[in-house]
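Backbone-to-sequence.
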């Protein structure tokens, strides 16, 4: 890794003056983030907004959807400020999403709970990469978005705790964990990534992919074990190591 990093701060008005590598990396990351924010609602709104087990769950699905759409709006605004756009991502089909996890159907209510617990937690990690980012406009929108993602994760954890209380609920939730856990780990990308090194050089991201994934594992695995779930195999079904 390059020992010295970019030390400057960049506003939207400064973006056109920046090195093309900086521009390309920032545009890429903001586009992926916008696609991920809107990708979730495309998976679960039709299936679970009015099919969740109870009114409280329906309300939570609606609220999570509204917050994720707002996160998309905020990242799309960042893109518009620098002459780009994620408008075309708003109605994209799931199979065309950039990240694999958003291409898989959410067939069971347990899937929604586990998605909130695991995948929204990865989303929180990805957003936390922008803490201290050299691009100042993104740092101004982080606190609320991260707090809302924590709420999504907390809802998923609450649902998993409830499901763990019965053998049937635990077995169904375990199947969903086995489905989503490998995809969650893959969302951190390749452990050795030349592109990620450049993200860190420009202070767009702050951690190597491998470190972020290990931090995630250290957080998630004890929570699963405490609820009595089996931590899924960390190699089965993985695409990126």
């Amino acid at each position: 890794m390059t020992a010295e990093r970019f030390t400057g701060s960049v506003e939207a008005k400064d973006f056109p003056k920046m090195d093309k590598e900086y521009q390309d990396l920032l545009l890429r990351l903001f586009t992926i983030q916008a696609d991920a924010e809107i990708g979730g609602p495309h998976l679960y709104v039709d299936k679970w907004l009015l099919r969740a087990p109870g009114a409280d769950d329906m309300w939570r699905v609606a609220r999570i959807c509204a917050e994720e759409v707002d996160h998309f709006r905020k990242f799309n605004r960042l893109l518009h400020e620098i002459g780009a756009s994620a408008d075309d991502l708003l109605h994209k089909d799931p199979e065309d999403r950039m990240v694999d996890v958003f291409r898989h159907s959410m067939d069971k209510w347990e899937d929604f709970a586990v998605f909130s617990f695991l995948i929204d937690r990865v989303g929180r990690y990805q957003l936390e990469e922008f803490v201290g980012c050299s691009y100042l406009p993104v740092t101004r929108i982080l606190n609320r978005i991260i707090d809302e993602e924590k709420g999504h994760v907390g809802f998923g954890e609450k649902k998993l705790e409830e499901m763990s209380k019965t053998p049937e609920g635990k077995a169904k939730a375990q199947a969903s964990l086995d489905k989503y856990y490998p995809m969650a780990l893959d969302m951190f990308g390749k452990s050795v990534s030349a592109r990620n090194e450049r993200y860190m050089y420009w202070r767009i991201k702050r951690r190597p992919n491998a470190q972020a994934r290990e931090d995630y594992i250290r957080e998630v695995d004890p929570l699963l074990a405490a609820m009595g779930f089996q931590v899924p195999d960390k190699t089965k079904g993985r695409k990126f190591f």
